[in-house]
Automatic annotation (TrEMBL):
Keyword Phosphoprotein: yes
Sorted UniProt keywords: DNA-binding, Phosphoprotein, Transcription, Transcription regulation
Modified sites of kind 4-aspartylphosphate: D57
Claim: Ligase is one of the keywords in the record: no
Protein name: DNA-binding response regulator
Every Response regulatory domain range: 6-122
SUPFAM superfamilies cross-referenced by the UniProt entry: C-terminal effector domain of the bipartite response regulators, CheY-like
Domain (HTH luxR-type): residue spans on this chain: 141-206
Length: 207
C-alpha cells in the first residue's frame, strides 16, 4: 500500500488555495491536511500537522516565501517545499535552491502541470520549469539588473546614498507607502531580507 502524502497549502488567495487543494486531492494517496493564509500560520500548521509536502505562495501578507521557507527548513529539514509565484523568480532562484526548495511553479500552471509536479515529488524528483532552465543557460550576472524597473533602479540608487524611504518619497514625488511597496518588490527580486543585503546585491550587479 502506497504511503499517503500529507500536504499543506500556504496561500492568502482562497481561489488559488482551494483550487490547488481540489486538483491535488484528485490524485491517489494525497491528503491536503490544511490551508494557511499567512506565513506565520503556515509555520505553526507545519509544526502541528507535520506535512511531507508544502505548496508555498511566495507573496504573503506578513512574510515573503523566502522567509517562510527558511523558518520551515530550520524546523524540519526533510519537508519538501514547492514555491508558487506570479513574479519573475530568476533573480531569486539560487537562494531558493540553496534552501532546498524542491519545486518552483508559476501561478499560471495548468492542472496537468500541478499533477505532474505532484507525481514527480512523490518519486523524489525536483521540478523546475523548462523556460527557467533556458533562462539559466542564457543569463549572466549583468542581466540581473534588467529585472528591476526604472523606478526600482532609481530607488536603489537613493538607498545606496543612505536615503530613508520617507526621504526617497519626497525626492521622487511619491507616497511613502508606494516606496515601501517598491522596496519590498526589490527585496523579493534580489532574494534578500534587509537593506544592507539589497545594497550589497545592487552594487555587485552594477560592477
Amino acid at each position: 500500500m502506497n504511503k499517503i502524502q500529507h500536504i499543506l497549502i500556504v496561500d492568502d488567495h482562497p481561489a488559488m488555495a482551494y483550487g490547488t487543494k481540489f486538483i491535488l486531492e484528485q490524485e491517489e494517496n494525497i491528503q491536503v491536511v490544511g490551508v494557511a493564509t499567512t506565513g506565520e500560520m503556515g509555520v505553526e500548521m507545519m509544526v502541528e500537522l507535520n506535512p511531507s509536502i508544502i505548496f508555498l505562495d511566495f507573496h504573503l501578507p506578513d512574510l515573503t516565501g523566502m522567509e517562510v521557507a527558511v523558518k520551515m527548513r530550520e524546523l524540519n529539514k526533510d519537508v519538501q517545499i514547492v514555491i508558487f509565484t506570479g513574479i519573475d523568480y530568476m533573480p531569486i532562484l539560487n537562494n531558493l535552491l540553496e534552501l532546498g526548495v524542491c519545486g518552483i511553479m508559476s501561478k499560471d500552471s495548468s492542472e496537468d502541470q500541478i499533477r505532474n509536479m505532484m507525481r514527480a515529488l512523490k518519486e523524489g524528483q525536483s521540478v523546475i520549469p523548462i523556460s527557467l532552465l533556458h533562462q539559466m543557460r542564457l543569463s549572466h550576472p549583468d542581466d540581473d539588473l534588467s529585472s528591476l524597473t526604472d523606478e526600482e533602479i532609481n530607488i536603489m540608487n537613493q538607498i545606496v546614498k543612505g536615503a530613508t524611504n520617507e526621504q526617497i518619497a519626497d525626492e521622487i514625488h511619491m507616497s511613502k507607502r508606494s516606496v515601501d511597496n517598491y522596496v519590498r518588490k526589490i527585496y523579493d527580486k534580489f532574494g534578500v531580507k534587509s537593506r544592507a543585503q539589497a545594497i550589497e546585491k545592487f552594487l555587485q550587479i552594477k560592477r
